[in-house]
Amino acid sequence: MLFLEFRPITRGRLRRSRVSFWLLTLAALALYAATALDYAFPGASATWIAWAAGLDVREVPSHPLLMWAAGHVVRLPWLSLPLRLNLMAAVAGALAVGWTFKVVWFVVFEAMREESAVTHASRNARFAGWVAALAVGLSLPVWQAATRFQPQIFDVALLMACAHLLTVYARSKRTVWLLFFGLLYGAGMAESPLFLVALPVMAVFAVVVEWKLEWCRVGRLFGTAVLAALALAGVHAFAARQFVLSRGLEVTLQAMLHVTVSVLREQAQAIGQMFPEHLWFPVFVLGLGSAALSFFAALRSLDNRRSWSAFILSLVLTIFALLLLFNVPFGPWGVVAKAGVVPAATYLIAGVGIALLTASWRALALLDDPVDVEIPFDKEDDDEPPLPHPLARSTTILFNAGRGVGLMAMPILVVAILVAGVLNVRWLVADNGAFADRAADEVLDGLGQRDWVVANGIIDANLLIRARERGQTVHLLCPYRARETHYTDAVRRTFTADTRFSERARLRAESLLAYSFHLFIDDLFSADTAMADKAICMGLPDLWYGAGLVPVPDRLFYGAASRTEDIAADKLLESHRAFWTRWQPFVEWGEGKPRQLGYRYRVALLRHMAFVANNAGVTLDDLKQPEAAFEAYLKAREIYPDNISALLNLFDAVARGMHPEMKETIERQLRDKVEHGRDRYPLWSLSRHYGYVRNVELFVRMGWQWALSSSPGSVLAGLRGAYAMQQDEQKRAALSAMMASLYEMRGDFKQSAAEYKKALERDPKNTFAISGLARLALQRSIVDEARAILENGEKAGAPRRQLRQDWAALYLVSGDLSRARVLLQEMAEEPDATPMTLAMLAMAMIEQDDIGAVETKVLPRLTKISKDQDGYFTQVIQGRVWQSKGKQGLKNARLCFQRAALIRPDVQALLDVLLTLDVSLEDRRTAEARALTILRQRPEHPYANFIMGTIRLEQGQYGDAEGYLRRSVADEKPMLAALNNFAEVLCRIRKLDEAEKVARQATELAPERYEGWATLAHVLAEKNLPDPATEALAKARQINADDARLNVVDALIAVKRGNPDAADQALARAGELSALSVAEQHTVTAVREAIARLRRTRE
User: Fewest Cβ atoms closer than 10 Å to its Cβ: which of 371, 548, 686, 823?
Assistant: First the structure.
């Protein structure tokens, strides 16, 4: 049957099929247009709308044809932006429904060839097409995809258009339709991975169509394939070129290939994710598997060929079809919808399968018994009459069973399709996503003149869309997109174009964005004192603490104030009450069901609302408004009952005597949540996900994790309050020690030392404080002070055994490696040896060049005992081992230290080591970003200031360079290079007297180094003292005559003496201008101008 010639189709039948096509298409369009969303549905749909409107940047130009068409729709002046694009999806959905009818109608008509089947072929084909259109059009995924803008419905419509073109070619026999199919399918393969997955099936369909025609020619198929390949390459080239141009880059073959490869990589990932990791088997069976089996079973049943196996299979497939239609939880939609995916293609294929199955049941019910069934009889010559073969009775039963079951199954499936469609209306209504646009409006209403938003990924695209509709400007900083290079580049361009930021801030942004997006955000908030007038934070209030400000909860975001006292408590409470009242219906609606597409975003928004409400309560508590704070905590629990931070704050409030009538209830809730709940809440995650907890005693009792992850500013503020109220001297000493540790974590070593001393005044035997003070002294390399601290602690009664590690650290710093190693080996041999002990032992061994023993003995043991911990010490020691292997090991060493820094970001010494490695590896971009990070925490850091000053000097940014280098040379023992570069900067900004003083200090510090003498010569030449400059330059040449840059200074001296020819000769010896730094290039330019002036004067 598959390879027999196509049956002719009369004009009347074609006309009736066209009428049905238009009726179904227009009906689907009316249905989809009536239910199309007039808002941007949160998640993928809103993101695609933002991309289509050019409001956001993409990493990969996937679906280029859709974006091109959507770009034209975006420019239309009618209706709102989301509604226009959602109606575009409705049109695509309606066409997909219509083309589904045409394809199914053609297949069923062609499949029915048996004598009885032929007489019913036309009606049954039309019936099957209508059923397919209804099954597909009323299915929940297709309906959802057709009412909100996203690629799935357009992919489905384009795929059905290609299939329809093959049926047109089969009817008309015109080659142009086959070539058009190849062109469209090739473009589709560049457009969507769905076409790559469907390629084998569509290729077989094309071969069968060509074979069934009277003149089957392979050349046509080959030409179609070539045309498809050209279309594929053309669309990829078009998309790549447009994408490169949109990024402001030069269009090159390499750039276009890079973009195309990224598209192919994304398509491969999409194909790999088409089936879920969990419950993939029922998803496959109920979706594609059932559709494929229905197709092959229908080929037999529609042609009136019957068997018990096909009959039983059809019964099983009917049950599967009913499960699919009513969206069972383990079906394709029930599984993948939880991830926010709309399986429109799966349900289109499944709908076609259901239509073929329904048509098969109708054929079994209506067709006459097959006339070509042969039943064997005994033909031997015998006087007795032949007995009927047992198969005859079985065949009669099969025919009767097929007719009876078909009469029941066919209407059951049709009614099920219609009932499921009605039930799907309820799903569509319940899965309302208008809350995202409402939330975006709340944020935009509160922005004022601020336009930078640190987003949290919940309503980001909706913010951009609503801002465009309202005519506002919004720039999003999305930390979760830090790895997207095109996005970070767009942020860089936008930020550097914002003139409200200083030139210095924009220059820093260039460096930091090239290194770390997170570091850029952190530095921006901490460095810009006016950031509160420019930005808000959606979910990272700690950024304001890092900037020295106080976060102010406002609706769904956080502004900032200089002090808590500057916040008006009444206004804060009233604004939040009004907000809670407006959003009460949303809260009462609840989270919805996990299978709803908006479920994840609804839950995330509820959690975020509770997060802000809880922190509003903390702020009101700080403002001495306990009743208002209690109200906010209760509201946070009402909005999101799982908010444990609000529950802890309520527990603290009732413990202080507030609302005693609720004490028992709150205590029971907290006990159930913490002790018997399924979830375990690590304290370090509370402030990030649920909000701050005010009761500092919880921190003291529960450990350090909370303090490390929460804002040091807010925790320290709470600790100070607890310290002031605490009467128990032992607890006051513990609080002092904790405050000292937090100050040390922030890099505030003076305050940390003061707090440790306070702790020792109350408890001279406090080993934690003794160790902390000794550690601070050793960090400054003041060994005698550390020794005195440890000795005094032992005299006061502190156990020496508990201070052994500090003594070992002292021996290491003082260079007494043998003594340190003996002590550390003694500690390491104990069964409970800590990772720190082993790490210190490894350090001592590395300093003694015993690298082999470290790698074979210490490091394996350290790795083993750190297996269930963070592995910090393992990374540090591995890094030191690589570092000891010379230049070839520096990259691996840096990688190890970077991993260690991720584990322990509070260890500032790691940043110093990493900065040194960056410089050794000549990675200037990373060194610049790392130095800025260090300086944000420790503004006086000599080496980081030197690195930044040197970079700015090379860039010609002399003002910044002066500031950095002045701080660098303020150290007790300034580096020669820092003095040298500082003198160079002072010379270029014409502070010549100070420059000479600094240059002479450099020559006195290291008279054997030629750099200091060369800089002194340059300074003296600029002061118009050519003879002393010549003497200094001669000393530089005596030490190193090979540096061609000395000729630049020689040329400057010649100019000062009025000798342009000598100056020209000296510049010629200096070499290529491009080999010089920016500052040296400026000097060369100035010398050449001076030479020209001298020659004009002589003329």
Answer: 371
Q: Is the confidence at residue 721, as pLDDT, over 60? A: no
DSSP string for 758-780? HHHHH-TT-HHHHHHHHHHHHHT
The per-residue pLDDT of the chain, averaged, comes to 83
- State yes or no: pLDDT of 984 exceeds 50: yes
Answer yes or no: are the C-beta atoms of 881 and 846 closer than 8 Å: yes
User: Exposed/middle/buried for 832, CB within 10 Å: 0-12, 13-18, 19+?
Assistant: exposed
Structure tokens at 129: 């097409």
How high is the pLDDT of residue 510? 82
Closest CA to 461 of 94, 46, 852: 46
Q: How many CA atoms lie within 13 A of 384 on its CB side?
A: 4
- Centre a 10 Å sphere on the Cβ of residue 986 and count the other Cβ atoms it contains: 25
CB burial of 264-303 (b: ≥16 within 10 Å; e: otherwise) equals eeebeeeeeebbbeebeebbebbbbbbbebbbebbbbbbb
Work out the number of other CB atoms within 10 angstroms of the CB of residue 1041.
10
Residue % of the chain over a pLDDT of 70:
88
Q: Which helix (H) or strand (E) element contains residue 554? A: strand 550-554
The pLDDT value given to residue 712: 41
Quick one: residue 469, left, alpha or beta (phi over 0 = left, psi -120 to 50 = alpha)?
A: alpha
What mean pLDDT do residues 398-420 have? 87
253-272 and 218-246 are packed helices; what angle lies between their axes, rounded to 10 degrees? 110
Distance, CA of 55 to CA of 858 (rounded, Å):
55
Q: Could you say which DSSP state residue 385 is in?
A: P
Judge whether 661 and 654 are in contact, CB under 8 Å. no
Q: 87 or 980, which is more confident?
A: 87
Highest mean pLDDT among 554-563, 808-817, 878-887: 554-563
How many CB atoms within 10 Å of residue 514? 16
C-alpha 118/C-alpha 124 separation (Å) is 10
The residues, any chain, with a CB within 8 Å of residue 419's CB and separated by 6 or more, are none
CB 302 within 8 A of CB 363: yes
Higher pLDDT, 653 or 696: 653
Residue with tokens 């209403």: 445
Can you tell me the distance from the alpha carbon of 991 to that of 977, in angstroms, rounded to the nearest whole number?
Answer: 19
Q: Is pLDDT above 80 for 620?
A: yes
Looking at residue 331, its amino acid is: G
Provide the 3-class DSSP secondary structure of residue 643.
coil
Question: Is residue 741's pLDDT more than 60?
Answer: no
Angle at 439 between CA 460 and CA 569, to 5 degrees: 115
Count Cβ atoms below 10 Å from residue 587 Cβ, excluding itself. 15
* pLDDT-based confidence at residue 114 (cuts at 50, 70, 90): confident
Domain with CATH 1.25.40 in the chain: 569-681
CA pair distance 69, 48, nearest whole angstrom = 13
How many CA atoms within 13 Å lie on the side-chain side of 799? 2
DSSP string, 919-986: HHTT-HHHHHHHHHHHHHH-TT-HHHHHHHHHHHHHHT-HHHHHHHHHHHHTSSS--HHHHHHHHHHH
Q: What is the mean pLDDT of residues 890-895?
A: 87
Architecture of domain 569-681: Alpha Horseshoe (1.25)
Question: What confidence score (pLDDT) does residue 129 get?
Answer: 94
Comparing 1045 with 456, the larger pLDDT belongs to 456
How, if at all, do strands 475-477 and 452-454 pair? Answer: parallel
Q: Write down the pLDDT at residue 264.
A: 93
pLDDT digits (tens, 9 = 90+) for 338-376: 877 889 999 999 999 999 999 999 888 887 766 554 444
Tell me the C-alpha distance between 402 and 211, whole Å: 33
Distance in angstroms (rounded) separating the CA atoms of residues 164 and 177: 10
